[in-house]
Amino acid sequence: MTEQRTVTVFGATGHQGGSFVRAALADRDSGFAVRAVTRRPDSDAAKELERLGAEVVRADLDDEDSLVAAFEGAYGAFLVTNFWEDMDAAHEKAQAAALSRAASHAGVQHAIWSTLEDTRECIPLDDDRMPTLQGSYKVPHFDGKAEADQYFTDDGVPTTFLRTTFFWENLFGAFAPQRAEDGTFELNFPMGDKRLSGIGVDDVGRTALAILKRGTDFIPATVSIAGQHLPLADMAAALSKELGQPVRYRPLTPDAFRALGFPGADEAGNMFQFYADCEARFTGARDLDAVRALNPALQDFSTWLAAHRDKFHWS
């Protein structure tokens, strides 16, 4: 039997890292063993990964020594940071830099770095269509990751830059339909009639695994992924059909969305405005046929909805 190569997975109990862990453990012929990294190896989520067959280790993105240990002897890595934990792009970049240094030190042969576009290439800082945030960003959780790409190049880490997009799982929580005064549920996004590129989180892990299985084919390369590009009105119609509840799309202006006042409303408002104003560029970078060639199980929105309808809790 061929010895399995270890892949160190950060964010293993979260959405993206967890999707990679599940994909790798489900593929008995992948040739990869999973080392799942978490700050809390005694958590129920970590114990479940262990039960599924992952090696669970403790490391913290703010403790570089722990990162070096987590990479020790690993062939590959799935790397992700969580901007939304404290919504600080500088902190996220510092964590990415630590990951890059540790991966380089350990001699990782193939890292997959979950990243995003630099929105300032489409909407420059001096463009007053949207406010500048955190001093030098339009959409900090995009732009900070894009800036961090260079760390992996400079440190000589063999890297695939995996550009993701809006996760449909956000519809369960932060961007769930809201009940209007007339009792109808509404999607309140500032995107007009433009298409939103979305993806089911499980497809992030499946696509990343497929990239790793291709060896050096995508080193170095940028792979931009989505499951479908869909207008919000069509998303609302699909939700209505699948869930048996009327859902309508009520487009807000970006300024009205930013004024909603919830934590991160300005960040999210800028993000949706970027998706809308730069629609052709963003969707054009995500060739669905090419993604499906890597991941034949790629879900479109309707397929994803049918599989996840029980996770919608209407209130």
Proportion of β residues? 15-25%
How many helical stretches?
Answer: 12
Written as H for each helix and E for each strand, in order along the chain, the element string is EHEHEHEHEHEEEEEHEEHEHHHHH
Radius of gyration in whole Å, from Cα? 19 Å
Overall 3D shape? globular
Mean pLDDT: 96
Largest sheet: 7 strands, parallel
Instruction: Name the strands of the widest sheet in spatial order.
Output: 3-2-1-4-5-6-11
Helix content: 40-55%
Distance between the termini: 52 Å
How many E-type strands? 13
Weakly predicted, low-confidence segments: none
Query: Which structural class matches the secondary elements?
Result: alpha/beta
Can you describe this structure?
With 315 residues, the chain is an alpha/beta fold. The protein contains 12 helices and 13 strands. The radius of gyration is 19 Å and the shape is globular. It starts with a strand and ends in a 7-residue tail after the last helix. The mean pLDDT is 96.
Main attributes of the structure:
315 residues, alpha/beta, 7-stranded parallel sheet, 12 helices, globular
In short:
With 315 residues, this protein is an alpha/beta fold.
Architecture blueprint of SSEs:
Elements: E1 5-9, H1 15-26, E2 32-38, H2 44-52, E3 55-58, H3 64-71, E4 76-79, H4 89-106, E5 110-115, H5 140-154, E6 159-163, E7 166-167, E8 178-179, E9 185-187, E10 195-199, H6 201-213, E11 221-224, E12 228-231, H7 232-243, E13 247-249, H8 254-258, H9 265-277, H10 279-284, H11 288-294, H12 301-308
